[in-house]
Request: fold
Amino acid sequence: MGRLDGKVALISGGAKGQGAVEGRMFVREGAAVVLGDVLDDEGKKVEAEIRASGGKATYVHLNVTREADWRAAVATTVSSYGKLNVLVNNAGILFRSKIEETTEEDWDRIMAVNVKGVFLGTKHAIPAMRQAGGGSIINISSTAGLVGAPGGTAAYTATKGAVRLFTKSTAIQHAKEGIRCNSVHPGPIATDMIKDVIEDKAQWEQRLRRLPMGRVGTPEDIAYGVIYLASDESSFMTGSELVIDGGTTAE
Ligand code: NAD
Reply:
């Protein structure tokens, strides 16, 4: 028996990185998944790979900043697999820049992807989840949504902090309908998002020294937590924060 048997999940940013790993692991636990992203070639490859192994997966073009794309992604999910039980708002972007050097365009873009994208996904998932008798929304925030950072990530921390509290308000508004909403707060995870830092040997060694476990996390480390939140195992958990960061924010 899989931990997600019979569940239907929509994962944004599912073409690579953590979203793609979550897609593969969700299917192994018995779910059908719809993966949405702007990277169509990569997304279709993940879809083909999952289908080749006998799993149910569909890739859709989904720019999370566009309401029409969300409407279509939710409609495709319901028409392909009959319902929507789980939404993982995983798509996100990061840039590093000092506050004084951050342009208005940079600020608007990261707010649009990381915050508006989560709002729009939530808005369009809720009616489908209500129809399904409940559901679980999982918003991928960051340790940067819990504490500030000295580097050039002020705008990113602002987006991830916003996701943390949007999660709690969503949870309160929809608790009575059986729609749960929790945030996940990963520490540094080895994906393309932080490749530049990992590849800068000197900077990376310094960073590793500041990590209590002395290692970077893997997408699997996060996916196991996301599976827990997607499953009925977490049925009493809503409005909460799941920190998976190797101890980074413990000190
Ligand atoms: P990643 O860059 O490998 O993947 C991000 C995915 O989001 C990509 O597939 C990208 O195409 C997609 N995306 C970007 N803009 C989009 C848009 N407008 N519409 C749809 N999809 C879009 O990085 P990742 O590490 O897998 O990131 C996943 C999530 O985890 C993000 O929300 C990120 O902020 C968060 N996170 C990452 C780390 C880390 O260290 N990697 C740490 C904490 C939190």
Remarks:
- Residues 12-13, 15-19, 37-39, 62-65, 90-94, 113, 140, 142, 186, 188-189, 191-194 surround nicotinamide-adenine-dinucleotide (CB under 6 Å).
- Strands lie at 8-12, 32-37, 57-61, 86-89, 135-140, 179-186, 241-244.
- The first helix runs from residue 17 to 28.
